[in-house]
Amino acid sequence: MPLIKWDPFEDFLTLDEEISDFFGRGWRLPTLRRGRLARWAPTTDIAETENEFIIKTELPGLKAKDVEVTLDKDVLTIKGERKFSEEVKRENYHRIERRYGSFKRSFTLPSNVDLGSVKAGVKDGLLIVKIAKIEAPKPKVIEVEVEESKAKKIEAEEG
User: Fold this and answer.
1) Terminal Cα distance for the chain, rounded
2) What is the CB-side half-sphere exposure of residue 36 using CA atoms within 13 A?
3) Is residue 20 part of a domain?
């Protein structure tokens, strides 16, 4: 089961940004979209141990109060906003490479997680979310019973 919900439109935005980065943006400000600075999505690593899933998201410059972690059914969502400091005039900058604005990352969790055990904390600009695993239900073997008279009739038809 995938841990990341795929958004095809997000891939187009990412491709656009990668092409722009490849050819260089020079000294220009990040592209304005809907009146905000270009969208960004913090990088995330997802690891699995024997007992838990560990999700680490880089959030440099953000505090715990700037981040919201929610769990709705089997989808873990991390969202927040990194604001551009308005006290500094943008004209003074020669280059702006850091991304600003709101972000939202969603991850579909597998069925073998304990949804009541989610723990999240921020340390040194790194959000760490831990979710304990539970034992996945084992398939139940069902014995098939056949009546003797029907079995003999089936054998006679086949033979």
Assistant:
1) 46
2) 12
3) yes
Task: Give domain status of residue 135, yes or no.
Answer: yes
Sign of CA dihedral 6, 100, 103, 52: positive
Tens-place pLDDT, residues 49-107: 999 999 999 998 888 888 999 988 889 999 998 876 655 566 666 666 666 778 899 99
Global pTM reads 0.59
Q: Among 6, 28, 29, 10, which Cα is nearest to 18's?
A: 10
| Beta pairing, strands 67-72 & 126-132 | unpaired
Domain that holds residue 35: 8-158
- Assign residue 18 the CATH number of its domain: 2.60.40.790
* 1 found inside a domain: no
Q: Would you call 115 helix, strand, or coil by DSSP? A: helix
Q: Is 151 or 49 the better-scoring residue by pLDDT?
A: 49
